[in-house]
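Weekly structure sync - notes
Attendees: PM, LS, DV (DV joined late)
Agenda: review two folding runs queued last week.

Item 1: First target. Sequence and structure tokens pasted below for the record.
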Amino acid sequence: MRRIVLLLLAVVLLAGCASQPIPTNPPAPTNPPAPTNPPAPTNPPAPTNPPAPTNPPAPTNPPAPTNPPAPTKAQPTAASASSSAVKLPEVNPLEVKGNIVMAGSSTVFPLAERMAERFQDEGYSGNITIDSIGSGAGFERFCKTGETDISNASRAIKSSEVEACKAIGREPIEFRVGTDALAVVVSKENTFITSATKDELAAIFSDAAVKWSDVNPAWPQENILRFIPGTDSGTFDYFVEEIFDKDEKPHLQAANTQLSEDDNVLVQGVLGSPYAIGYFGYAYYAENAGRLKVLAIEGVEPTKENVDNGSYPLARPLFIYSDAKIMHEKPQVAAFINFFLTHVNEEITEVGYFPASEEALNAARQAWLKAMGG
């Protein structure tokens, strides 16, 4: 019996020992190599996805700021600079009363007449008297006898004339209103002349020559057909003054000469023959530039630039003059000068002249404001 008990104890002990090896399972802790799964953190190479930040080249889209060339559309702001023209108080011609007396330059006369007509067309009911007597005679009436309210001039006033004005209590104020430029033209069919000197013009437009070859042997032995403005034209007077030293006889005595107050008639005359030549305001050339050829004078072409800088020999500034006292005592004079300076560029090319520069016109408007105490 005792033996049996001992045997049972031995069996239990053996069984206990046999179940012990289970702890050898703890090598399962070698399962922690699952922590070697953390190599999943090697997935972080996904951060190599950040090359998506290489997408930021989209920031290279900021070249859209190169769109700011749209600011170059801000060149309208340059245009708005031209809209920085000096503004004068608005004039209603219907409200203007009293008469106005002007005299002077025959060159300014057509422009002054056009502005007077427009002033009256828009409601002015008074009379505007304009005499075409030349710049010098105009200053005489304005500065010596004091007969006129406004003096028209195709040249600046002389110091002696200023002194004469002061002697009768007048301080002349200069208003630039435009620029005169004559276009001397031939038909595009004319193949032998592109430029002329003043001396050649004096021969071409006078009784000193009948044929083109009389002026230049290289030119055709064909009659010169001349088309010139009428003697009442300021353009005619200016040409005579510049080319013939104020002596109109050689000009009027030239053979084959047709005069007309209508510049369109002159255009048609020149277009009628390759041996025809004429002169008139530049605006009429510009309207017919496809059919006419304008001559350079002394090698200088009548472009706006050459007119503005004074290099074109047949270009000169156009003025009107008045006085602050007159403008205050006769509000109609101040109103008309205001109207003139405000609207002259709407009419001047139709008359046949060039506009004054914006700077010159602004200076004239400033002179008006100063005279009126503005």
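Item 2: Second target, run right after the first with the same settings.
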Amino acid sequence: MHWQPIDYIGLLGGLILLFAFWRTSTGRWKATSIWYEFDNLIAAILLICYTWQKHAYVNILLNVVWGIVAFHGLSSYAERRMLRNKNFRRGYHKGKRFLRTVK
């Protein structure tokens, strides 16, 4: 079997996904860690590229959903970070992401 560059992209995506799962399972990362979510997002993108080239369209849906969940996790992480900031918290209201001027 002769490997093409797209095969290495798929292999890398799978390895990144397994690495993130392993680090979380062993307790080195939390499921809410930015690195876990970032690895999931990168793996999903690589696997989408791979499955698109291999015409495995059913698998693309799974990876798109996986990527959306990872992106949502990253945005939740960013929101948690902002809420820890005292200056941001003063003007934050759930669902309204703007700073209110304090009089």
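Discussion on item 2: The two ends are 70 Å apart (CA to CA).
Action: LS to circulate a short write-up before next sync.
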